Amino acid sequence: MKRDNFGSKLGLLAAAAGSAIGLGNIWKFPYVVGENGGAAFILVYLLCIAVIGFPLMMTEFAIGRFGQANVVDSFKKIKPNTPWFVTGILSAFTPFMILSFYIMIAGWVFTYIGKYATGAISSVAPAELANYFTSTAGNATGAIIASLIVIVITAFIVIAGIKEGVEKYSKILMPLLLILLVVLMVRSLTLDGASAGVNFLFKPDFSKLTPDSFLEALGHAFYSLSLAMGIIITYGSYVKKDQDLASLSLQVTIADTLIALLAGLVIFPAVFAYGFQPDAGPSLIFITLPAVFESMPLGNFFGLLFFSLIGIAAITSTISLLEVVVSFVNERFNISRNIATFVSASIIFLLSIPSILSFSSLSEFKIFGMTFFDLFDFITAKITLPLTGLLICIFAGWVWGAKNVLKEVSGEKEISPFAYYSYSLIIKIIAPLSIIAIFLHSFNII
């Protein structure tokens, strides 16, 4: 079966950056920063990205390009007749599970786009916005329709293939996302009192850091860069041999981090300018920011722009998550891409329904004390993501070998002793120990 490839370096960068840039940057990053004190946390996060995130991204690109196959067969090609293909199975399972509730959250975003487009939300009093969001999430029919729209859009793009689907639409969506982000940032920074938000983002107060902050920063670095989700390995399998993987990884890492910081410059100056709290948590974009938009001139217009921005970011991520699953189904079961996409998207949509109903008719139904949504989130965030990341580090550092990884990264060019020893130390020791610390912390063991 002939495999597709990215047609241009720009398309590859747009798609890879799009996979990393999603709700994690524009929704989760700002509220995590807000909960952990601002600038000091950002410095720790940047350190985690540079020391661990960047080397791990290179590693995943190398595994994918060497394997030239889906996540399972890439591991089989590197180490045939060994159990390491199980790491690939985990890498396919994780995005499958994540997408089942991610399309629900993206569906909420699309619902809010509609509410801003019609002006429906502008009549809601700020004090009622929390109840408004609760009723939106609890409207099962509306949430199911919105999730269906998200998965249909995603499947439409993925079914077209890498060049004509993923690459083509990433080259459209990513510049549009950046334009919207800059427009909103300019508006936010020109509000009276915006400087307090800028200071919060860039003036460190190290007294606000806690041991939890370091682990939170490291965990978010994994989440933000789409590591251990099979995405980078899958995209790596479509990368031509003449591409510099170190340069590509650096560019994606910088783009991802820049977008997250720009999102902070959209959100926090506005939040501070209107006297809201920066540590609102996950409710920041669905409750706090709509209250901010209601307080500012042309707020409905800027609310529409903001949720359109988040909607684009969500779609660039759903594309990459679905591509991992489709690539696996397409190649492992030797069925056409069209059928693989239809089957995968259909099952994911059906699996999303229990998560959607967790906010309405199934809210009282618990498994191990968790709703379906909480359970799916727990399985991926607390178990499969750190476990997959740990296995990839062990595989790259101790099984395939750091020298072989770097040989694939550099395209057979000579590797300096400093690069080898630095990478080897990170992939063999620092990254695995860090992931173990995240895992233990998530279960309140440390």
Automatic annotation (TrEMBL):
It is found in: Membrane. CDD domains: SLC6sbd_Tyt1-Like. Its main location: membrane. GO terms for molecular function: symporter activity. It is a multi-pass membrane protein. The keyword Membrane applies. It holds the Pfam family SNF. One of its GO terms (cellular component) is membrane. Keywords: Membrane, Symport, Transmembrane, Transmembrane helix, Transport. The chain crosses the membrane at residues 38-63, 84-110, 140-160, 172-197, 217-238, 250-276, 301-326, 338-359, 379-400, 420-443. Belongs to the sodium:neurotransmitter symporter (SNF) (TC 2.A.22) family. NCBIfam families: Na_transp. This is Transporter. It comes from Oceanirhabdus seepicola.
